[in-house]
Specification:
The protein has 526 residues and is an alpha+beta fold. It contains 9 helices and 18 strands. It has a 14-stranded antiparallel barrel with strand order 1-2-3-4-5-6-7-10-11-12-13-14-15-16. Strands 17-18 form a two-stranded parallel ribbon. Helix 4 packs across helix 8, helix 5 runs parallel beside helix 7 and helix 8 runs antiparallel to helix 9. The two termini are 55 Å apart.
Length: 526
């Protein structure tokens, strides 16, 4: 964790322990920002890149990729109609989010006492709404910050002095402690009591309760997410929430969670939650069922729709210490000559193996060659990842998300290979794995802006020269493989000389020395 992150964490604890106790109105945003967090036990403090989690922590939207929309419509306790709409937009300042939550209860009976009898005098409506405006941005590759301004409104229709308005302000931070572990902290309604309150038209004032939220999100596997939240309020006991999400495949997600809520005295009650998520391209549908163990009427079905339009954000962390992909492109990819050469050798070998698959007549032999092709693809993916790691390059967020999605799908397909009962089914799944690995390689090539793997002037070479280059590269690859297995220093020196000689031949061919087309290979090593 950075020193800046430690100071933010320390400041959060100072603020929460310094909150004054106050009795006030309940923040309607506690209901949750969508069906996904509700299905996971209302855990939303540590959820990077999620628009529906900004009500738990405004910093969650800092990693949002492109323009996003989120909506939810639900009826709670058979009488309260909730409507929620949220939007996130990338700007130069960061991710700007706008949200609206409105609730309406109609036909509430109004009574009065007349001649020692309670009689109905009509009905009235109650409405409550919150409009939020937020800003979030990454401060570094591991730390993000966000804030939200909230405008509250309450109204009892037809009752004198029955309307109120007020302001609330939230801040939050999200820290990526590890690749698969995130910590979120949020302070809600932290303005002074003179500002963070509802003022009614009859002069009555009610304070908005301050809330401290801490949460962690952990991914033990690429398709599994476990979340834990702790909420502390100034007007009620603390609440604990836990949730889990299993990404079955790129289309379906299964979710569950448990809320631990105070039930009077020192006791706690548990409310389980369940849900599913369906994703099709840019559209997501989420469903959640919340079971209230105390009041059955509060058990509710939640439905959410979300839209994401991926695009590159127009801002970047100013304090990031690693290189951006844009900076690498300005250095010219030609500086990555050694890495390019390795990738070209692997691709040349894959091309030769594909030709062998076509020439092979026995299916068992074809399967063995296909296994070699997949092995070479794995080597190429590892080579690309090694370049990113060695040069400390951060891929664009949309490419990074695509890489993670493809890797999750490959992992799921590999599990299916182990469970497949028939040989044909296994081969079909293996073909899908190969297709996904090819997509992954294409994504890496886009990151490095490599338009083609052949060297400059390749089209200008004759077919004989092109065949010679492929043959020499294959021979170099075989020599390098033999070098890695040879332990004798004398043989190693001999192999290195042969490799150098073959590389010189390559260079001369690229320069147009056609005389070397017929040059024979040196004697093979015995």
């Amino acid at each position: 964790m950075t020193r800046f992150g430690i100071w933010i964490l320390f400041g959060f604890w100072i603020l929460i322990f310094g909150f004054p106790a106050a009795a006030g109105v309940i923040d309607p945003l506690r209901i949750g920002g969508g069906a996904r967090p509700i299905a996971m036990g209302r855990t939303s403090t540590a959820a990077p890149g999620r628009l529906d989690a900004i009500y738990g922590n405004p910093a969650n939207s800092a990693d949002l990729i492109g323009f996003g929309l989120n909506s939810m419509q639900v009826k709670v306790a058979e009488d309260v109609n909730y409507t929620l709409v949220g939007m996130g937009v990338p700007t130069k300042l960061g991710i700007v989010s706008i949200g609206y939550l409105g609730s309406i209860v109609s036909g509430i009976n109004q009574t009065a006492k007349t001649n020692n009898r309670v009689v109905s005098t009509g009905t009235f409506d109650y409405s409550s709404s919150v409009i939020s405006l937020g800003l979030a941005r990454p401060l570094s590759s591991k730390l993000s910050f966000g804030s939200t301004l909230k405008m509250y409104s309450r109204s009892f229709g037809g009752i004198a002095g029955g309307s109120a308005s007020g302001l609330g302000f939230d801040i939050g931070t999200l820290m990526k402690l590890r690749k698969n572990l995130s910590l979120g902290l949020s302070l809600q309604n932290l303005l002074p009591s003179t500002l963070s309150q509802l003022t009614w038209t009859n002069g009555t004032k009610e304070e908005l309760p301050a809330t401290f939220r801490a949460g962690i999100a952990f991914s033990p596997k690429s398709n599994l997410l476990v979340a834990l939240d702790l909420s502390t309020f100034t007007d009620s006991p603390s609440e604990l929430r836990s949730g889990i999400e299993w990404q079955v495949n790129h289309f379906l997600a299964l979710r569950g969670g448990i809320e631990y809520l105070p039930s009077g005295g020192l006791g706690y009650r548990t409310n389980p939650t369940l849900g599913i998520g369906l994703i099709k391209r840019n559209i997501g549908f989420d469903y959640a069922y919340y079971s209230d163990g105390t009041l059955a009427a509060n058990s509710t079905h939640y439905f959410s729709l979300s839209f994401k339009f991926a695009q590159k954000a127009s801002y970047s962390p100013q304090k990031a210490k690693t290189k951006t992909v844009k900076a690498v492109k300005t250095e010219q990819i030609g500086l990555l000559e050694k890495e390019q050469e390795l990738i070209r050798q692997i691709e040349s070998y894959i091309t030769l193996l594909r030709e062998k698959v076509k020439a092979a007549k026995v299916s068992a032999q074809k399967d063995k060659i296909r296994e070699l092709i997949e092995f070479e693809r794995v080597k190429m993916i590892a080579a690309y990842k090694n370049i990113l790691l060695k040069r400390k390059i951060i891929p664009p967020k949309d490419d990074q998300a695509e890489i993670e999605q493809i890797e999750k799908y490959i992992e799921l397909l590999q599990q299916k290979v182990g469970t497949a009962q028939s040989y044909n089914k296994k081969q079909q799944v293996r073909q899908l794995i190969g297709y996904e690995r090819a997509k992954l390689i294409k994504t890496f090539r886009n990151i490095f802006n490599i338009e083609k793997t052949t060297p400059e002037g390749w089209e200008e070479l004759t077919s004989g020269e092109q065949k010679s280059i492929k043959r020499i590269k294959k021979y170099i690859y075989l020599l390098q493989t033999k070098l890695s297995k040879t332990k004798s220093p004398h043989k190693q020196t001999k192999i290195k000389k042969l490799i150098s000689f073959e590389k010189v031949k390559l260079g001369l061919i690229y320069k147009g020395r056609e005389a070397l087309q017929t040059t024979s290979n040196p004697d093979k090593i015995k």
